[in-house]
Specification:
With 215 residues, the protein is an alpha+beta fold. 43% of the residues lie in helices and 23% in strands. The protein has nine helices and seven strands, in the order ααααββββαβαβαβαα. It has helices spanning 2-16, 26-39, 52-63, 71-75, 125-134, 140-155, 169-172, 191-194, 196-207; strands at residues 79-81, 88-99, 105-115, 119-121, 137-138, 159-168, 183-190. The strands form two sheets. The protein has a five-stranded mixed sheet with strand order 5-2-3-6-7, sandwiched between helices. The protein has a two-stranded antiparallel sheet with strand order 1-4. α5 (125-134) crosses α6 (140-155). The longest helix is centred in the last third of the chain and has 16 residues, at 140-155. The relative contact order is 0.12. The model is unreliable at 1-17 (pLDDT under 50). It binds zinc ion (ZN).
């Protein structure tokens, strides 16, 4: 029985597939989760699972809300003209994202640096830009590049560097089952790419101890 439901749904989805840029469709998500529970051999009617489809639908809508956030709207009023030509760094930005291959979380830290060109962005906006791209189905490499290219173009910066360090549950819980592996990706644009000393300074600064660290 369960298999038939899944197969019918699968066929309909393929035929009807549309690029949906609107908010997540909670009703469709809920019924898909119910079918997934059936397909896993579970009983969606049992007590512990009664509200699971609703909870999962809401959780996925939250975790993919970045599709519906607008960067220009986010940066509105947060760009300031300034005569400052030293590197700006915001490091250890926590993020949580979802791997698009397994729909499992990957999470870790983002370090961002840029060399301003007569314009800086309010520091609190950088973690929010990270969230816009992290709260989507992602691969780590694309997340890294999207953050870097967005900052480079919106700030017209001389250069941008982004380093992402992440643990992937799809590696930790299945597949190679490596618990302590951290994947590192980086994107270096402008002078961060063309000038080795700028890149080295950035990498040195992001690996220095944090404010308040005793060592
Ligand atoms: Zn994965």
């Amino acid at each position: 029985m369960a298999k038939q439901v899944v197969r019918r749904r699968g066929q309909r989805q393929v035929e009807d597939v549309k690029w949906n840029r609107g908010p997540a469709d909670l009703d469709v998500l809920q019924s898909l989760v119910t079918e997934m529970l059936l397909a896993l051999g579970e009983k969606p009617g049992r007590n512990g699972l009664l509200k699971t489809p609703e909870r999962v639908a809401k959780a996925f809508a939250f975790m993919t809300q970045g599709y519906h956030r607008d960067i220009d709207h986010l940066l509105n009023g947060a760009l300031f003209p300034i005569e400052y030509d030293e590197m700006v760094i915001v490091k250890d930005i926590d993020f949580f994202s979802m791997c698009e291959h397994h729909l499992l979380p990957f999470y870790g830290r983002v370090h961002v640096g840029y060399l301003p060109n007569k314009k800086v962005v309010g520091l609190s906006k950088i973690p929010r830009i990270v969230d816009v791209f992290a709260r989507r189905l992602q691969v780590q490499e694309r997340l890294t590049v999207q953050i870097a290219e967005t900052l480079k173009s919106k700030l017209n910066a001389h250069g941008v560097g982004v380093v992402v360090e992440a643990r992937h549950l799809c590696m930790m819980m299945r597949g190679v089952e490596k618990q302590n592996t951290i994947a590192v990706s980086s994107s270096m644009l402008g002078v961060f790419r063309s000038q080795p000393q700028t890149r080295v300074e950035f990498l040195k600064l992001i690996h220095q101890g944090s404010v308040g660290d005793s060592d």
